[in-house]
Prior knowledge:
Blueprint: H1 2-21, H2 24-42, H3 56-63, H4 70-77, H5 80-100, H6 104-121, H7 133-147, H8 154-164
Amino acid sequence: MHGASGATGRVAAWKEAGSRYALLPLRLFLGITFIYAGLDKLTDSAFMSDTGSGSIGEMMRGVRDGSAIPALVDLSLKSPVGFGYAIALGELAVGIGTLVGLFARVAALGGALISLSLWLTVSWQTNPYYYGNDLAYLMSWLPLVLAGASLFSLDAVLAERRRRR
Protein backbone atom coordinates (compact mmCIF):
# COMPACT_ATOMS: atom_id res chain seq x y z
CA MET A 1 0.00 0.00 0.00
CA HIS A 2 2.79 2.42 0.84
CA GLY A 3 4.15 2.34 -2.73
CA ALA A 4 0.75 3.16 -4.27
CA SER A 5 0.25 6.12 -1.95
CA GLY A 6 3.75 7.42 -2.77
CA ALA A 7 2.99 7.20 -6.50
CA THR A 8 -0.31 8.98 -5.95
CA GLY A 9 1.50 11.73 -4.05
CA ARG A 10 4.04 12.14 -6.86
CA VAL A 11 1.26 12.35 -9.45
CA ALA A 12 -0.57 14.94 -7.34
CA ALA A 13 2.64 16.96 -6.91
CA TRP A 14 3.30 16.78 -10.66
CA LYS A 15 -0.26 17.95 -11.42
CA GLU A 16 0.07 20.81 -8.94
CA ALA A 17 3.38 21.92 -10.46
CA GLY A 18 1.89 21.63 -13.95
CA SER A 19 -0.99 23.88 -12.92
CA ARG A 20 1.36 26.47 -11.40
CA TYR A 21 3.56 26.64 -14.51
CA ALA A 22 0.80 26.17 -17.13
CA LEU A 23 0.70 29.79 -18.28
CA LEU A 24 4.47 30.29 -18.43
CA PRO A 25 4.91 28.91 -21.99
CA LEU A 26 2.02 31.08 -23.20
CA ARG A 27 3.52 34.13 -21.50
CA LEU A 28 6.94 33.46 -23.06
CA PHE A 29 5.45 32.89 -26.51
CA LEU A 30 3.26 35.99 -26.48
CA GLY A 31 5.94 38.19 -24.92
CA ILE A 32 8.64 37.18 -27.40
CA THR A 33 6.22 37.30 -30.34
CA PHE A 34 4.98 40.80 -29.55
CA ILE A 35 8.50 42.11 -28.94
CA TYR A 36 9.53 40.65 -32.28
CA ALA A 37 6.45 42.07 -34.04
CA GLY A 38 7.07 45.54 -32.62
CA LEU A 39 10.77 45.54 -33.51
CA ASP A 40 10.03 44.13 -36.96
CA LYS A 41 7.66 47.02 -37.68
CA LEU A 42 9.97 49.66 -36.22
CA THR A 43 12.92 48.51 -38.34
CA ASP A 44 10.98 48.08 -41.60
CA SER A 45 11.13 51.36 -43.50
CA ALA A 46 8.75 50.01 -46.16
CA PHE A 47 6.14 49.27 -43.48
CA MET A 48 6.51 52.65 -41.80
CA SER A 49 5.36 54.54 -44.89
CA ASP A 50 2.10 56.06 -46.01
CA THR A 51 2.33 54.54 -49.49
CA GLY A 52 4.19 51.83 -51.33
CA SER A 53 4.34 48.08 -51.33
CA GLY A 54 4.23 46.64 -47.82
CA SER A 55 3.39 49.99 -46.19
CA ILE A 56 1.01 50.41 -43.29
CA GLY A 57 -0.95 52.94 -45.35
CA GLU A 58 -1.47 50.57 -48.27
CA MET A 59 -2.35 47.72 -45.95
CA MET A 60 -4.99 49.79 -44.14
CA ARG A 61 -6.46 51.10 -47.40
CA GLY A 62 -6.59 47.52 -48.66
CA VAL A 63 -8.57 46.21 -45.69
CA ARG A 64 -10.85 49.21 -45.17
CA ASP A 65 -13.91 48.01 -47.08
CA GLY A 66 -13.73 44.46 -45.71
CA SER A 67 -13.23 45.37 -42.07
CA ALA A 68 -15.85 45.04 -39.34
CA ILE A 69 -15.31 48.65 -38.29
CA PRO A 70 -14.34 50.80 -41.30
CA ALA A 71 -14.38 53.90 -39.08
CA LEU A 72 -11.47 52.44 -37.10
CA VAL A 73 -9.52 51.99 -40.33
CA ASP A 74 -10.45 55.55 -41.37
CA LEU A 75 -9.02 56.77 -38.07
CA SER A 76 -5.74 54.98 -38.78
CA LEU A 77 -5.65 56.47 -42.28
CA LYS A 78 -5.57 60.02 -40.88
CA SER A 79 -1.93 59.28 -40.02
CA PRO A 80 -0.90 55.81 -41.19
CA VAL A 81 2.72 56.21 -40.11
CA GLY A 82 1.68 57.50 -36.67
CA PHE A 83 -0.71 54.55 -36.38
CA GLY A 84 2.10 52.19 -37.43
CA TYR A 85 4.35 53.59 -34.71
CA ALA A 86 1.54 53.37 -32.14
CA ILE A 87 0.92 49.70 -32.97
CA ALA A 88 4.65 48.87 -33.02
CA LEU A 89 5.41 50.66 -29.74
CA GLY A 90 2.27 49.14 -28.20
CA GLU A 91 3.38 45.66 -29.24
CA LEU A 92 6.85 46.31 -27.84
CA ALA A 93 5.48 47.56 -24.48
CA VAL A 94 3.02 44.68 -24.25
CA GLY A 95 5.71 42.14 -25.13
CA ILE A 96 8.22 43.46 -22.61
CA GLY A 97 5.59 43.77 -19.85
CA THR A 98 4.41 40.22 -20.54
CA LEU A 99 7.87 38.70 -20.79
CA VAL A 100 9.20 40.22 -17.56
CA GLY A 101 5.83 40.06 -15.82
CA LEU A 102 5.54 43.75 -14.97
CA PHE A 103 1.92 44.92 -14.75
CA ALA A 104 1.24 41.61 -16.45
CA ARG A 105 -2.55 41.88 -16.45
CA VAL A 106 -2.39 45.40 -17.90
CA ALA A 107 0.11 44.22 -20.53
CA ALA A 108 -2.11 41.25 -21.39
CA LEU A 109 -5.12 43.54 -21.68
CA GLY A 110 -3.09 45.74 -24.02
CA GLY A 111 -2.17 42.68 -26.08
CA ALA A 112 -5.81 41.60 -26.19
CA LEU A 113 -6.90 45.07 -27.32
CA ILE A 114 -4.24 45.18 -30.05
CA SER A 115 -5.28 41.72 -31.21
CA LEU A 116 -8.96 42.68 -31.11
CA SER A 117 -8.38 45.83 -33.16
CA LEU A 118 -6.31 43.91 -35.72
CA TRP A 119 -8.96 41.17 -35.91
CA LEU A 120 -11.76 43.70 -36.47
CA THR A 121 -9.76 45.51 -39.16
CA VAL A 122 -6.93 43.62 -40.83
CA SER A 123 -8.00 39.98 -40.52
CA TRP A 124 -11.80 40.37 -40.32
CA GLN A 125 -12.26 39.32 -43.94
CA THR A 126 -10.27 36.11 -43.53
CA ASN A 127 -12.53 33.23 -44.45
CA PRO A 128 -12.93 30.88 -42.73
CA TYR A 129 -12.31 32.94 -39.62
CA TYR A 130 -9.93 30.41 -38.05
CA TYR A 131 -7.35 31.06 -40.77
CA GLY A 132 -6.77 34.53 -39.34
CA ASN A 133 -4.29 34.64 -36.48
CA ASP A 134 -5.50 37.80 -34.70
CA LEU A 135 -8.55 36.09 -33.20
CA ALA A 136 -6.33 33.27 -31.88
CA TYR A 137 -3.98 35.86 -30.33
CA LEU A 138 -6.96 37.60 -28.73
CA MET A 139 -8.09 34.34 -27.14
CA SER A 140 -4.50 33.57 -26.06
CA TRP A 141 -4.27 36.84 -24.13
CA LEU A 142 -7.41 36.21 -22.07
CA PRO A 143 -5.90 33.66 -19.61
CA LEU A 144 -3.09 36.12 -18.88
CA VAL A 145 -5.61 38.95 -18.40
CA LEU A 146 -7.38 36.77 -15.83
CA ALA A 147 -4.38 35.20 -14.09
CA GLY A 148 -1.53 37.67 -14.49
CA ALA A 149 2.04 36.48 -14.00
CA SER A 150 2.54 35.01 -10.57
CA LEU A 151 5.79 33.14 -11.33
CA PHE A 152 9.14 34.45 -12.55
CA SER A 153 7.80 37.98 -12.77
CA LEU A 154 8.54 41.44 -11.50
CA ASP A 155 4.91 41.53 -10.29
CA ALA A 156 5.68 38.59 -7.98
CA VAL A 157 8.86 40.27 -6.72
CA LEU A 158 6.96 43.49 -6.00
CA ALA A 159 4.12 41.59 -4.29
CA GLU A 160 6.61 39.77 -2.07
CA ARG A 161 8.31 43.05 -1.21
CA ARG A 162 4.93 44.61 -0.24
CA ARG A 163 4.05 41.51 1.80
CA ARG A 164 7.26 41.80 3.83
CA ARG A 165 6.61 45.42 4.78
